[in-house]
Write a structure and sequence with these properties.
globular, mainly beta
């Protein structure tokens, strides 16, 4: 990645322009997160890369995060916009809010890590134009007031997906409200893992 944050506390990246030219093999995230990330924020940045904000894949823990905030970024991505998935865990309040994500062919926003007891994951107010799945979250999340579109003439795949990540977790509470999902060739909103409660309304 162009910027790599590994085992950091109180990091705030804001008002940056980051261009990252990676290869298919090396990835090429504009901002790469790994290890422990406590109170990490990325705000009002312009990111152009294969993946805008990403956590490396694999079977080991990718990110053990608390107080994560990714807000008001403009992301032009070739593969994935914001990828916090993989073998990750979220503590306290983690937010992905008011980002503009354009162009990724695989996924717009992915956050399928485990939400720890007392933690929360909010994906709200984002505008996403992608040919892949727009938003994918795990078994405990709030997905609210997002706008999902596609780019070009072909429709995208799924809109909002609730799916299991690599870490086995207890079913939690998922609320999907007030989203606008358009031009999808797959399912607009789809549940693919067990949850305790599942609220879908006003979409």
């Amino acid at each position: 990645g162009a910027i790599r944050l590994r085992n950091v506390v109180l990091a705030d990246l804001h008002d940056l322009v980051v261009l990252s030219y990676g290869t298919q093999e090396s990835g090429g995230a504009a901002i790469e997160l790994r290890g422990v990330g406590l109170y990490v924020a990325a705000r009002r940045n312009v990111l152009v890369a294969r993946t805008g904000i990403g956590v490396p894949g694999g079977d080991n823990i990718g990110l053990f995060g608390a107080g994560l905030r990714f807000e008001e970024n403009a992301i032009v991505a070739f593969d994935r916009g914001i990828d916090l998935g993989g073998a990750s865990a979220y503590l306290y309040a983690c937010r992905v809010t008011d980002n503009d994500v354009f162009g990724p062919r695989e996924a717009g926003i992915v956050a399928t890590g485990a939400v720890a007891p007392g933690g929360s994951l909010d994906v709200t107010g984002n505008k996403i134009g992608t040919r892949g799945a727009a938003i994918t979250v795990g078994a405990d999340a709030l997905v609210d007031a997002n706008t999902v579109e596609t780019l070009g003439g072909e429709p995208g795949t799924d809109g909002i997906v609730v799916a299991a990540g690599p870490i086995k977790v207890q079913p939690g509470h998922v609320r999907i409200t007030g989203n606008r999902v358009r031009r999808r060739s797959g399912t607009g909103i789809v549940l693919r893992t067990q949850v305790r409660t599942f609220m879908v309304k006003q979409n």
